[in-house]
Amino acid sequence: TEEISSLSVESCRLLGVEFAGVDLLFGSEGFVVNEINGNAGFRTLSAVGDNYIPARLFEYVRWKCAGKEKT
Asked: Among 10, 12, 6, which Cα is nearest to 36's?
């Protein structure tokens, strides 16, 4: 949902991380963040979704590194 997406993205932004697993709980007023994992797992999402997450993450890393000179 949009609520889950917004909460997850904003939580990562506040911590300064670009990729993480965000565990949510459902509270009395909606979703709340339980924890944010820097070493997110892919097994479950890859099994139920159309995207192979490790490949998408690699594409993102390549995109972020493009144009930067090696030292």
From this structure: 12
Q: For 6-58, write each residue's pLDDT tens digit.
A: 999 999 999 999 888 899 999 899 999 999 988 777 666 666 667 777 888 88
CB 18 within 8 A of CB 12: yes
The radius of gyration of the chain from alpha carbons, rounded to an integer in Å, stands at 15
Closest CA to 53 of 40, 66, 62, 64: 40
Token code pair at residue 71: 């030292």
CA 24 – CA 4 distance, rounded (Å) = 8
> What is the per-residue burial (b if ≥16 Cβ within 10 Å, else e) of 16-50?
eeeebbbebeeeeeebeeeebeeeeebeeeeeeee
